[in-house]
Amino acid sequence: MSTAPMPQFPTGFRWGVSTSAHQIEGATTADGRGPSIWDTFARSPGRISDGSSGEVTCDHYHRHTEDVALLTGLGVDAYRFSIAWPRIQPTGAGPVNPTGLDFYDRLVDELLAAGVDPVATLYHWDLPQPLEDAGGWLHRDTAARFAEYAEKTAARLGDRVRLWITLNEPFIHMSLGYGMGTHAPGRALLFDAFPVAHHQLLGHGLAVAALRTHTTSPVAVANNYSPVRVLGDSDADRAAAAAYQALHNRLFTDPLLGHGYPEIPGRDPSVIRTGDLETIAAPIDVLGVNYYNPTGVRAAKAGSPLPFDLVALDGYPRTAFDWPVAPDGLRELLGWLRDTYGDALPPIEITESGCAYDDAPDADGQVADPERIAYLDGHLRAVRAALDDGVDVRGYFVWSLLDNWEWAEGFTKRFGLVHVDYATQTRTPKSSYTWLRDVIAASRPGSAR
Ligand code: PNW
């Protein structure tokens, strides 16, 4: 880790942390919430590595006041949370469940009272189960249902949420949920999952229009990006890397920014109707960038169902997820976005950046996580370098405030700045929390550094 002082960030740079509803709230049957695809998936044996579910997780639904105090202690400007669609519309359609909306209404008011900007993601993968039963994101009608949910939610919260994010990581949702089947809803359609891309994008575009009828706040989408490193120097290796690049980094961003779809294998144009590309390219105010790691790619092995082979990258430290720690990839990615999309690229906020380590309290109950401090230090310096390169980055949100339920990995991966003891629900700020608090404080205009 660099021993040089953290460079200054521009005045107004937004410091934040991120979470998502299903990973922290628990209370999955409280107050009329309906089932989501993750409730169903977690009940299916063998899907979650430790056999756990999202039933309780961090019990944030009941402990939100304590969690808002953790935000205040950290000194962040903003908190990115997600709204559970099955709390708002238990079946994914029809009238709102007012009690479900009340929860977010109170949370938003608590955040504003604490001086923290509410940043709300409408869809972080928790599709109401009845919509999945009707075809999920393979089904065009899900896009219209999503826009209706967005409209009803913004009617209540649109005056107070400071930044709206429609979808979280539609690529990861499509590829792991519908392509490989390792996430909910657990469908393994490989490239036949393309309609899931199109319908999420269409839902996004329709939701942008719906949101704007109730809010003047900026609207964004949060994509996952991973710079591609080609391994090997054959034409087949380069072609494989280009295919993966199109899929992971361009499939969603090209149409969002008005370029239409890139060439990807298995793309079925029959789901694209007249006018859809215009709906999808509705102007957004901010591009949310979620970055974890670069991806090594080489030519597919004979007989592989995929046109590429994803390989672990050597030469980097690794997180508990075995993901490489590569801050240079974040600078590279931000430069690539600017070079590729030029004037069509809106201002960027890093909406997720973080790492999992096996953090545990010591005998005194303290949780030291020097690897996370090094991770965040490196990635913040990468953002600073990208600003110097001329990329318009407006904020940085750490994934995550709390250790939480890491999807198919259950409770086995800890991403938090705050340790959670799931047996007692005790929250213990880790040393990275104190470190980040000091970095944020030192970045304030007039701070004594
Ligand atoms: C993101 N991958 O998920 C999500 O937005 C969060 O909910 C999640 O907790 C966080 O990152 C950490 O995983 C991802 O396989 C899941 O490349 C998988 C991948 C990337 C992001």
UniProtKB/TrEMBL annotation:
EC number of this enzyme: 3.2.1.21
GO cellular component, one term: cytosol
InterPro entries documented for this protein: GH, GH_1_N_CS, Glyco_hydro_1, Glyco_hydro_1_beta-glucosidase
Keyword list, A-Z: Carbohydrate metabolism, Cellulose degradation, Glycosidase, Hydrolase, Polysaccharide degradation
Pfam family, one: Glyco_hydro_1
Active site residues per record: 169 (proton donor), 352 (nucleophile)
One annotated GO molecular function: beta-glucosidase activity
Catalytic activity: Hydrolysis of terminal, non-reducing beta-D-glucosyl residues with release of beta-D-glucose
Hydrolase recorded as keyword: yes
UniProt key word Aminoacyl-tRNA synthetase: no
Protein name listed in UniProt: Beta-glucosidase
Organism: Micromonospora inaquosa
